Amino acid sequence: MTSIDTITLDVTDVAAAERFYATAFGLDDRLRLRASREPSTGFRGFTLTLTVAQPADVNALVDAAVDAGATVLKPAAKSLWGYGGVVQAPDGTIWQIAGTAKKDTGPATGRIEQVVLLLGVSDVAASKRFYVGRGLTVAKSFGRMYVEFDSGSGPVKLALYRRRALAKHAGVSPDGTGSHRIAIGAAVEPWTDPDGFAWETTALATTS
Predict the structure, then answer these.
(1) I need a surface site. Which of 15, 94, 101, 108 has the fewest CB within 10 A?
(2) Phi/psi of residue 17, nearest 5 degrees
(3) pLDDT, average across residues 162-166
């Protein structure tokens, strides 16, 4: 089974991005940053989700992100599946902050339970076959709409979603061109998936 070790974001200003993420989320070694000026316009085809226990934690993270310079794409609110909001970091990365609980059981803990990388793909079934062929194990699958893989001991969970549906869920247009500006680090030989998302060996992915 292949598990994700790190996520690397390509940013134009590493120092500014480091300040933002340290202040907003404190993701330690799960998130890497490196300098890149590859062109990218519109939706980059992915979101990162921080799952937390309760609404108080969602609100605390959204507020911290906004105070650090993020833009709110969807205000935190209740939904059929729980409670969450969406923000866009100054570097352009879209972050969903979400929890399944709709009521608080106590004060905010500041604890992030899981990081989920959601890739917006053109054909969920085809991408699922590709990733299974690369050694990932399916944990959940809902037809051609959504697939979630077993993260094993890795700190980041991978899931696939239809690109247009993911953009709608994030509150942005699905249109976008250029680099995804993200690299997925794992103990694998480098590869690129059918939608152009690059996987790198962990040693490469952690090099700034």
Answers:
(1) 15
(2) -65, -40
(3) 97
User: CB 177: neighbour CB atoms within 10 A?
Assistant: 10
Q: What is the pLDDT of residue 205?
A: 47
pLDDT at 208: 40
165, with CB counted inside 10 A (0-12, 13-18, 19+), is middle
Q: Which helix (H) or strand (E) holds 192?
A: strand 191-192
Q: Which residue segments constitute the domains of the chain, with CATH numbers given? A: 4-98+108-205 (3.10.180.10)
Helices (H), the chain: 14-24, 55-68, 124-133, 163-170, 202-205
57 contact partners, CB below 8 Å, separation of at least 6: 99, 108, 109, 110, 111
Per-residue tokens: 106: 């106590």
Per-residue model confidence (pLDDT) at position 203: 62
Q: Which residues, other chains included, contact 174 with Cβ-Cβ below 8 Å and sequence gap of 6+?
A: 43, 120, 163, 164, 166, 167, 168
Q: What is the pTM of this model?
A: 0.94
Distance CA 75, CA 87 (A): 8
